[in-house]
Specification:
Elements lengths: L6 H14 L3 H29 L9 H27 L2 H25 L3 H25 L12 H11 L2 H23 L1 H34 L8 H23 L1 H8 L11 H11 L2 H4 L1 H6 L3 H25 L1 H26 L6 H20 L7 H33 L2
Helix pairs in contact: 1-2, 1-3, 1-6, 1-8, 2-3, 2-6, 3-4, 3-5, 4-5, 7-8, 7-14, 7-15, 8-9, 8-10, 8-11, 9-11, 9-16, 9-17, 10-17, 11-15, 14-15, 16-17
Amino acid sequence: MVGGLQSESAIARDYHESVRSNSEGRLLASGILSSIFGLTVVALMLLLVGKFGSLFAVEADFEVVLPVALMLLPYQLLLIGQLVARFRGDKGIFALLAIGDLVMTMALTWSLVAIYDFGVPGALWAQAISKLVWGGGATLYLFGGGRLREKKLFDYFTIVRSLKYSLPLVPAVGARWLQRYIGQWAVVAFWGLSAAGELAVAMKTGMLVLLVEMAFRLAWTPIAMQSLDRAEEREKYASALQGYLLGLLPLALTICCFSWVGVKILAPESYREAARAVPLFALSFFWDGTLAIVGIGLNAVRKTYWGMLSYGVAAVCNGALLIYLVPFWGVFGVGVAALCSSLLAAALLLFISQKLYPIPYRYKAVFLSLGATFGALAILLLIPEPGSSWWSVFLNAGQRLVFVSILSFGLIAVLRRNILLENP
């Protein structure tokens, strides 16, 4: 997140342009060089802390730190390889890199932890070995096969241009990470470790929406970056936002209906109260998905520092809400803070992006989706909680699904009518 200097984001921004101008090699080399510099600094710091941390009153096990330091650069190379495979349309290569790394990591983890009993260092070494293998394979894919023929790969202008774009994203991504996970610290501080377990269950159940959102982002990013420099294609971004709202919000609301079922499957009865917060996290993840669309203007004009401001304000808002709500509402308060901060980040990005790079978004679809979000939450909270039996839990899910389906179909009908009126 930090050491890589967000070089993969700079590569994504300029990849299609570099292909058109036959400078793909220079772009990739500049991104990898930036990553080598940043990650080498971070790795050396980790190794120093692991070796001499006791001198500075810092507890760190060198056996744990070493594999982490070794995997940083190969992991970044693997991410860049997967990114370029998506942009090149090499679906087989992308699947090979992703699945190969996953399978090797699982196999090595099982061997080193379950069979040889190496514990936490074994799990980390499993990841490090896999990243070294597949990061090397990704590098061969990037520069092999004679696809890159530039004589001068390292270009000062390209490196500076990429860093000006990517460096402001480092604190922005850090703010987003803080916004998503700071709730765990707040819950532990006010309610103890047992509440942290309840929060983990609620977030993991809501992450079903996050998986769908991540799949959308994987497919959307290459398409979005392809037309950034062509103003006449801005309509595509407006259609993408409307399609995302129309297609994924009903799915997110359906997952919300089965929150009690999901928690009962994933956790023991003592964690059942986590189900009350699941819809809040699920809808927070859903609205996080709009950030890749509404913030596209910042990418187009290369003013990514505005993203740092937007995410920073949202993170501060999240922290303030946590301090105010968690002492009274616990995990439910974390969910409220997460949803509010996600909506605030989306609103700020939309406002700033429209000032820099106007796009004809259908605001009616946005406001209807907001209404559906809060309407569904009201319905889900008004329906009484189920009993402990499976029959009661599924009956509750059915009741929720009936009311939320009416709301979702109403939203879809209105949006479809709006589309037909705009495109007779």
